[in-house]
Amino acid sequence: xxVVIQVPRYPxxxxxxxxxxxxxxxxxxxxNQSLAAARLGARVTHIGMLGLDPYAERxxxxxxxxGVDTTYIRTWEGPTGMAFxxxxxxxxNRIIVSPGANGQLQPLILDALQPVFADxxxxxxxxxxxxxxxxxxVELARSAHVPVFLDPAPARADLFxxxxxxxxxxxxxxxxxxxxGQTVSDAKTAHIAAAKLQQRGARRVVLKxxxxxxxxxxxxxxxxxxxxxxxxxxxxxxGDAFGAAFxxxxxxxxxxxxALRIACAAGALATTKVGAYTSLPHRDELETFLKQAxxx
Length: 296
What we know:
It contains 10 helices and 12 strands. By secondary structure, the chain is an alpha/beta fold. It has a single domain (about 30-80, about 105-290), classed as 3-Layer(aba) Sandwich (UDP-N-acetylmuramoyl-L-alanine:D-glutamate ligase). A 6-stranded mixed sheet has the order 7-8-9-10-11-12, sandwiched between helices. The protein has a 4-stranded mixed sheet with strand order 2-1-5-6, with no helix packed on it. The radius of gyration is 18 Å and the shape is globular. The chain starts with a strand and ends with a helix.
């Protein structure tokens, strides 16, 4: 559950800043991406954990109403995961995550779900669950010859122990810097960061760069798609909208460079609304946006 508050700016150490009203909005990177993919027309199964608190059923129902299969969501006798989201006046967000139930998704739970992985066209995974469980997700997908798309957030260096088994890694510019030591400020530095990820074992890289758009490095070379021009109000879940759109379009068209354009549009559109799941675009919204909005 995302606890969202609008603030004029983020406070300095020891400072108090008066913010707006607090909103409780369903979120979580995995759930956002599941919901975003479903809204774009994919058949989605979500694997995750919820707690035993008032938030759990609302979160489950949010996915179910959108057509996501929630059969394999398990329950832990503790709190549901929460994120505390501060949104500044220009739409920039700062997020603190308390894993809660997400931290209890153990590999043993996943082992019983091997048929679910075998039935998939792709697997998306994030780092908001234990790292050993992420590794098991990758193993189960690879054994079923299913491509894996990894969103390395929150970023951590030990993902390089298995990143060679991941088909696509999709960091934002801050995560790329944490993983490679390379600041991303333009196409040249994005190319260097992506190349460093490949040197450390990544097969293909999509690098999300916010207002600069996104970059792609695969076996066919390096590509950049500029951001679409919008007036952002909240960047929460923009990366999740981007990631889901990239995967769905890549599976649909088998063209990574086409998928990059669609993903940039989905990410941009998500910034025009407040909140996580509330901002994730439906396919008709995305298609209308693509017809009307020129790239910068």
